[in-house]
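From the shared-data thread, chain only:
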Amino acid sequence: MTATLPESAQQTAAPRPLVEIRGLDVGYVRHRRVTPAVTGLDLTIDRGEIVAIVGESGSGKTTTANALIGLLPANGRITAGLAAIDGVETAGASERVLRQLRGRVVGLVPQDPMVGLNPTQRIGRQVGEAVRLRGVAGPEVAAEVLRFLEQAGVPDPRLRARQYPHELSGGLRQRVLIAIALAGRPKLIIADEPTSALDVTVEKKILDHLTGLVREQGISLLLITHDLAVAADRADRVVVMRHGRIVEQGDPRVILGSPREAYTRQLIAAAPGLAHGGKVVARFDVRGEPVPEPILTLTNVTKTFDVRDPRHGQRGFNALDGVTLAVPRGRTHALVGESGCGKTTTLRIALGLEPPTSGSVLLDGTEISRLSWRQQRPLRRRAQIVHQNPFAALDPRFTIKQSIIEPLVALRIGDRASRNRRARELLDQVALPSSYLDRLPTELSGGQRQRVAIARALAPEPDLIMLDEPVSALDVSVQEQILRLLTELQAELGLSYLFVSHDLAVVAEVSHTVSVMSRGRVVEHGSVAEVFTNPTSPYTQELIDAIPGQRMAAWSTGGSAP
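Structure, as tokens:
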């Protein structure tokens, strides 16, 4: 028997909203006490409406969605209120009732496609499971699988259906998750940070396709994101959450154009894509200024990897083709481009972790491309790296102090007393209290862990720091703090940065010069102010056009959204 809302709750104005949440309280049990995560939440989603929930980590966005579809973790508790989808109460419903809804009434597009997809099953089988939920059987399943893969924008669906998740790019994996969500022909799709790890052009294609399908089929979409620019571009209504409560909600033109609450204004100011009315504005304009001598120079660098092809034997794959760039001393040079363009390979070669097939790599005048590992070791203190994921970069068994002094121990710099002093100095430099020295990475937030990763990179007093997507996994307010910290450290210590990012709005906030890469080549380079204002390459223009926030930019000029 399907559970339904009580009669009193059904007395609402017609047509009835597809999603109804009233007075919802959700918490997590820790040490036998329930810690509130969502408090007194009231939310409705109409049929065919796109609603975006925005806010920082811990604001209750994902908890709200998980409570709605019965996917709270084992320690999650709904302590008050009700939640319903299409008239069926889900708060406290049995697993049998919830399974009748999942797939057929509500589809889910999770944030991480490698977690959302089964790595041991082929793509076709996973889409087929969603098709069978509707009672489809026999040869019709395979036909439906191909149809939904094609509908989700997956090229060559017959080939992709036979592949495993690891054989697809991030963008294709995300399209497969959309196909799975669509395969049940749901009335509601919940998309939880569906594009946070994707490049701007891939993100635009995914969101264009998802919102297009939603509009065509009259499906409701609940979009959960910390990216206000995405919310501004895509939603009919924006809901701003903080500390488990709704701060304000309404039309994105009103919420993001004339916000009522100080917290919303703070989020907008912190978002690079929205801070200047949806336009990309370079913070540093170095046009006409003398260029400092480079600390790092790559000249005609190529890199060819051997790839084994079952049909044609071993062949070469050109990851880099004649890449030339320079990082001026005391400035930030950015590398931008889509996944697979060669950014990370360039970074690894610049750091000496990967030898180039040909070309020259000079670190402060020293050729490092032909040095052995032992010969490169003394140069390690001159150049350090900060990775994208701070949690993966820090040993979970090490205390914060051990993580920070690890490079000093490896490079045999100082003694125990001097290393401990250096750890305290570095925590102070990255604006963390010294009491954190004895904590473990699990006890820190994402932004705090990234500060620790920066402190560790600073430990051997390098001249150059390479930053590989250092803020892509962080909320806008935390992102702003880290970018401000990097700028302050550069001014204070005279650091040089090689900054790798797919987010052009972030690049405009911290970088002086930029190289735009496509398919292993540099297609354009120059000052950020010049390249982003007057791009000469169609590819650069495509990247700029794909930046979220274009809808807000159109509002500010009195035009319509693209």
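Residues 2 and 97 are 6 Å apart (CA to CA).
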